[in-house]
Design a protein that fits this description.
Elements lengths: L5 H12 L11 E10 L10 E12 L2 E11 L5 E12 L20 E6 L4 H9 L4 H4 L1 H6 L10 H16 L7 E8 L8 E12 L2 E9 L5 E11 L2
Antiparallel strand pairs: 1-4, 1-6, 2-3, 3-4, 5-7, 6-9, 7-8, 8-9
Length: 234
């Protein structure tokens, strides 16, 4: 599936987050954005070389942002994927109020797809991905230590739901046609929720159709914003 590259990339991401020089407070860490460029299929039996670096650090009044870059190369020397993960560590400073923006016009939707998150989705995804962060699998920890109403879905699982929605709607369910997917995480998703992903055509050029998309929860609030999906034409 298109979200698989995050699994071999986890070691790079963890290496950046647990770097003693950075002193990242993991309890204040928020996954802000994820951007995947998918250049070649990853198949069973492939041997991947994983390289990465901390690409940038930006200090803001409200906290710090870290951008981690990861490249996956297969045994033939072909770059299979390039990932950029933007992580935000909330600071103690006062947040600046964003200026009001005029709402963009409603796009002409090319597709709308609804999916339901299973009650045990976080446990299954934790086993599949290797991400056992307790906010996803330990209700008591999520409530008492993280201040959440309960366990929440992994952000990358939410992205995987959206990528499947895009593929099923406009790519004939063929993951090889998805060249790029980018999202901004805006709200947590809880087990049992229904997600609706709706997308529109941004451009068509060079055999690639670029879609914008967003994913909403059952209350109509965006959980993913500023989505971009580049799909190879059939």
């Amino acid at each position: 599936p298109p979200a698989f590259p995050v699994v071999p990339a986890q070691a790079v991401l963890a290496g950046a987050l647990f770097d003693s020089e950075l002193e990242v407070n993991l309890m204040r860490l928020v996954h802000g954005e994820e951007d995947h460029l998918l250049l070649a299929p990853i198949r069973p039996g492939d041997t991947l070389t994983v390289e990465g670096c901390l690409e940038s650090i930006e200090v803001k009044e409200s906290g710090e942002t870290f951008t981690v870059f990861t490249r996956l190369t297969n045994q033939d020397g072909v770059t299979a994927a390039e990932l950029r993960s933007l992580l935000f560590v909330r600071g103690s400073g006062a947040r600046t109020k964003a200026a009001a923006e005029e709402a963009p016009p409603e796009p002409e939707y090319a597709f709308t797809t609804s999916q339901t998150v299973d009650e045990d989705q976080t446990y299954r995804y934790a086993e599949a991905s290797g991400d056992h962060n307790p906010i996803h699998i330990d209700p008591e920890f999520a409530r008492n230590a993280a201040g959440l109403p309960g366990i929440i879905l992994h952000g990358m699982a939410t992205m995987a739901f959206a990528s499947k929605a895009v593929l099923d709607a406009v790519a004939g369910a063929d993951p090889a046609r998805l060249r790029r997917i980018k999202v901004r995480f805006s709200k947590p998703v809880f087990p049992g929720e229904t997600l609706t992903t709706r997308g529109w055509v941004e451009s068509r050029a060079g055999g690639v159709t670029t879609y914008g998309f967003e994913t909403l929860n059952g209350r109509g609030s965006p959980v993913l914003r500023n989505g971009i999906a580049e799909v190879l034409d059939a």
